[in-house]
Amino acid sequence: MSKGHRSQIKRERNANKDKRPSAKLSYARVSVQKACFVLDAIRGKGLEEALGIVTYNPRYASTLVKKLLASAAANAENNNNMNRENLYVAECFANAAPTLKRIHPRAQGRAYRIFKRSSHITVILDERK
């Protein structure tokens, strides 16, 4: 059974919510494995250093992560009143999203499956103490 009115339950649930600025990109047309190459390179780095890394990284996922970093930094400045110089990448991860299944015709009437994978990419910033 619930322990109170619906508004009270929501209030308690929102009180435990993570207050760190973040940005999330859903249904990105890049596989989790390829996105993680870029995310592993910036995890724990300062914001400006992370932006420099993804700017000159040739991978396609780096363009997506660069937009996410800029969005999370804007959220930190505008919503949480944080200083841009003190921000760093606290967490970043990619989760699997739905896979598009396509068929490639092969010899003698056979069909091979092609999996076009996508992912949900999340970047969470925090302020250095």
Please name the defining characteristics of this protein.
Ribosomal Protein L22, Chain A, about 130 residues, 5 strands, about 30% strand, alpha+beta, three-stranded antiparallel β-sheet, flat
Report on this model:
InterPro entries: Ribosomal_uL22, Ribosomal_uL22_bac/chlpt-type, Ribosomal_uL22_bac/org-type, Ribosomal_uL22_CS, Ribosomal_uL22_sf. GO terms for molecular function: rRNA binding; structural constituent of ribosome. This is Large ribosomal subunit protein uL22. Residues 1-24 are annotated as: Disordered. This protein has four helices and five strands. It is of the alpha+beta class. The protein has one domain: Ribosomal protein L22/L17 (Ribosomal Protein L22, Chain A, Alpha-Beta Complex), CATH 3.90.470.10. A three-stranded antiparallel β-sheet has the order 1-5-2. The protein has a two-stranded antiparallel sheet with strand order 3-4. Helix 3 runs antiparallel to helix 4 (60-79). The radius of gyration is 19 Å and the shape is flat. It starts with 5 loop residues before the first helix and ends with a strand.
